[in-house]
Design goal:
Pfam families: BPD_transp_1, BPD_transp_1_N. This protein is an all-alpha fold and about 350 residues long. The protein contains 15 helices and no strands.
């Protein structure tokens, strides 16, 4: 009996370690296959779109021998399978090519513009979660009554009205008429370059440097586009929260808790809300990823120098290196956010471990 009890813990530890190694191996294999599939899709996009990268570089008036030389330098004269392997190797080395529009490496351009999108999307999703989740809960609790109808109307407007129209109206009312917010861009001209760039996110950089005038000016500019993105996320998050809560409020454990005399607030905000956290994390993660991929219309309306605007300008200039590089980053954002949500599942729900 004693020998068995002493031998059991190492055996159990070995089993757990084996399971974790297998789980980690499966996760890494899944990520590798996803990334390879992403590269395959972006490569095919670059070959299917009727845009000639060599022609975009040399222009349509270049001599034929110059055009052919550029095609050879880009490897476009090679067989398609060979071009794909070269493309994968370049991406793995962090070489996304050089942007025709800016003349800089694409990865350098993306590193410059992505913090602006990250800052805007993070504030937007915070607004969406802070207001959307309580609104969805209230709508579920007061089903088919006026709070429910109000939340549904707010969500319907957020889904139906084009976000670029809301942006233009917001600039007209809150900037041009009332002067409550800043105009387009991230900063006024005379505040640019004062706070040293550490993270690329002006609010954080200004706070680190103690430049509170710059911080207030940046906040003045970001509040309106962040509120619009937050409203867009709020519409989706509140609707999904309502649906998830309605399902939980009809469960037997809710009835049992009420019969035992548990307060209604605890039943709703502790018992029911806790049981929707896992699917709710998925909802928030997908919403956040959609904002991080670059809110093209919002960034265009507010002249926000983020990933969405960079991708739009690259498409208009037929800059395929920039388009494909930005597409890969968008795909990696979705993979990263999904991985993060999977880790959060394990924290909020022990059964997922």
């Amino acid at each position: 009996m004693t020998e068995r009890s002493l031998a059991a813990p190492p055996r159990l530890l070995g089993t757990r370690l084996t399971r974790r190694i297998r789980s980690l191996g499966g996760l890494l294999a899944s990520l590798a296959l996803t990334f390879l599939g992403l590269l395959c899709i972006t490569f095919l996009i670059g070959r299917i779109i009727p845009i000639d990268p060599a022609l975009a570089i040399v222009g349509d008036r270049a001599p034929a021998h110059v055009y052919e030389r550029v095609r050879e330098e880009l490897g476009l004269n090679l067989p398609l399978w060979q071009q794909f392997f070269i493309y994968v190797g370049q991406v793995l080395r962090g070489d996304f090519g050089t942007s025709v529009l800016t003349g800089r490496p694409v990865l350098e351009d993306i590193a410059r513009v992505f913090p602006a999108t990250l800052e805007l999307a993070t504030l937007g999703i915070l607004i969406g979660v802070i207001f959307g989740v309580p609104m969805g809960v209230v709508a579920a609790v007061h089903r088919d009554r006026w709070p429910d109808q109000l939340v549904r109307v707010i969500g319907l407007v957020g889904y139906s009205v084009p976000i670029f129209w809301l942006g233009l109206v917001g600039l007209l009312v809150f900037y041009a008429k009332l002067g409550w917010v800043g105009g387009s861009g991230r900063l006024d001209f005379f505040h640019e370059g004062i706070a040293p760039s550490v993270t690329g996110m002006i609010l954080i950089d200004a706070a680190i440097a103690g430049e509170w005038d710059v911080f207030r000016n940046a906040l003045h500019h970001i509040v309106l586009p962040a509120a619009l993105l937050g409203y867009f996320s709020l519409a989706y998050i509140s609707r999904m929260t309502r649906s998830l809560m309605l399902e939980q409020l009809n469960q037997e454990y809710i009835t049992t808790a009420r019969v035992k005399g548990v307060s209604e607030a605890r039943v709703i905000w502790v018992h029911a809300l806790r049981n929707i956290l896992v699917p709710l994390i998925t909802v928030v993660a997908l919403s956040y990823a959609s904002l991080l991929e670059g809110s093209v219309l919002t960034e265009t309306v507010f002249a926000w120098p983020g990933l969405g605007r960079y991708l739009t300008n690259a498409l208009l200039a037929a800059d395929m290196a920039a388009v494909l590089g930005a597409t890969i980053v968008v795909g990696l954002v979705f993979v990263g956010v999904n991985l993060l949500s999977d880790l959060l599942y394990r924290l909020v729900d022990p059964r997922a471990r």
